[in-house]
Design a protein that fits this description.
The chain contains 17 helices and eleven strands. The chain is an alpha+beta fold. The strands form two sheets. Strands 3, 4, 5, 6, 7, 8 and 9 form a seven-stranded mixed sheet that branches. It has a four-stranded antiparallel sheet with strand order 2-10-1-11. The protein starts with a helix and ends with a helix.
């Protein structure tokens, strides 16, 4: 009896016992579906996170001060939980030296200064804002897209002008979405009981994927209002110098290597500082690290979900043992007609493999559907890769062979005479 005959007999057996076959496949369907679904959602989540981080600038390098005795690997400084003194801050002279030494390797340096938060008001209209002072290069380095007007200019910083660039969300709240009405108008922002007045010179597009998702309603969400750096420092009464900034490397260069060079260069100025040093982190390195973490997490969860495949395999073996018992006389008849032990073994192994293969295919369909729906909920629709599908099919067939061999071997070793006399 050849392979094709074994496949035909297996399919006939499945058709004859449809409900039992479906219940046998159920564990395989759930296991494969869960693994494929989790990996697909994991791919979507990884793509969403890395896409958001890349949107901040794939060649960007975060430069921060860190405490020399910080045992958290610089996490406290990255989260803004350090308070360096004025003499510890990165100065304009340091940045000028950096530009002179590595200017050909840099596309820009973005500097920001928080001036607190407040609320823009005009009668019953309002919009929540966070005030952020920026330099001329900030918008280009952080990929901010202007919808109307212009960006902060050197004359605004030199003159400490009360101008601002607001988001389209604020324009929707305060000017009913009319960009032309917003440009040139004055907005009053209440901050800590103080009323500040700014003239709108530009409107940028708010991008939740790069600026952070908010649980607040569209009307109540807080967006950044960008001011000249000097104006923000005056409002916040902040000292000269910076504890954090962003450097954009030339996209044709290895940003990680540039980050190392910048860190070494700036730390020359901190060689005598007992408390602080400069730390750099390339965005590309952060993206790679995040991708590795997410992939590892997805695989770990998939392995846990894959335990159901073991349960499903045991179910297949159990049903195959029942099938061997039910078809004992049939086995005896086949042996009496000349079927070898190998023919009987092949028949039952093939039947087990087909049960698992069909269950695996259904599981792939279920997992793909679940994965697509799940990844769509995080705005990153994703499908399983060909590698995942091939692995699922191969694993299903392997389960069929592994858990089907024992019942098949038991059937092959039946004595034909005893099998024919079995009631």
């Amino acid at each position: 009896m050849g392979l094709s005959e074994s496949i035909r007999l297996a399919l006939e057996g499945l058709r004859a016992n449809k409900m039992r076959s479906l219940l046998t496949m159920l564990g395989i369907i759930i296991g494969i579906g869960a693994v494929i679904g989790i990996l697909t959602v994991g791919n979507g989540l990884t793509g969403s996170i890395t896409g958001s981080m890349s949107g901040l600038g794939a060649s960007n390098i975060a430069v921060t001060l860190r405490e020399k005795d910080d045992e958290t690997g610089g996490m406290m400084s990255m989260m803004g939980m350090i308070s360096p003194e004025k003499d510890d801050l990165i100065t304009e002279d340091m940045l000028s030296a950096l530009r002179e030494r590595y200017g050909e390797y840099l596309s820009g340096i973005a500097i920001g200064e928080s001036a607190g938060s407040g609320q823009a008001k005009d009668g019953r209209l309002y919009a929540n804002v966070s005030l952020s002072g920026v330099n001329v290069e900030y918008g280009a380095v952080n990929n901010l897209e202007l919808l109307a007007g212009r960006w902060i200019q050197e004359k605004d910083i030199d003159g400490r002008r009360n101008v601002c660039i607001v988001s389209d969300k604020l324009v929707n709240n305060m000017f009913h979405g009319d960009l032309s009405a917003a440009l040139g108008s004055e907005v009053q922002i209440e901050r800590n009981g103080e009323l500040l007045t700014f003239r709108v010179v530009g409107v940028y597009e708010y991008d939740a994927s790069t600026m952070g998702y908010s649980m607040a309603s569209e009307k109540d969400m807080s967006t950044a209002a960008y001011l000249p750096l000097s104006t923000a420092k005056h409002i916040a009464d902040a000292p000269d110098g910076y504890s954090a900034l962003t450097v954009q490397a030339d996209p044709n260069l290895d940003s990680a290597a540039v980050a190392t060079a910048i860190e070494d260069f700036l730390n020359y100025f901190y060689r005598n500082n007992k408390d602080y040093a400069v730390m750099t982190m390339a965005m590309s390195t952060m993206v790679e690290s995040m991708s590795t973490i997410m992939n590892t997490l997805s695989i770990a969860i998939s392995v846990i979900a894959g335990i159901s495949l073991l349960v499903g395999g045991i179910g297949v073996m159990n049903i195959m043992l029942v099938s061997v018992t039910e078809r004992t006389r049939e086995i005896g008849t086949r042996k009496a007609l000349g079927a070898t032990n190998g023919d009987i073994r092949m028949q039952f192994v093939v039947e087990s493999m087909i049960v698992c293969l069909i269950g695996g295919v259904i599981g792939i369909i279920v997992g793909t559907t679940m994965g697509y729906i799940g990844s769509s909920l995080i705005s990153e629709p994703s499908y399983p890769t060909a590698g995942y599908i091939a692995l699922a099919v191969g694993f299903s067939m392997a389960i069929g062979v592994f858990f089907g061999y024992y019942p098949a071997n038991k059937a092959a070793k039946l004595d034909p005479i005893e099998a024919l006399r079995y009631e």
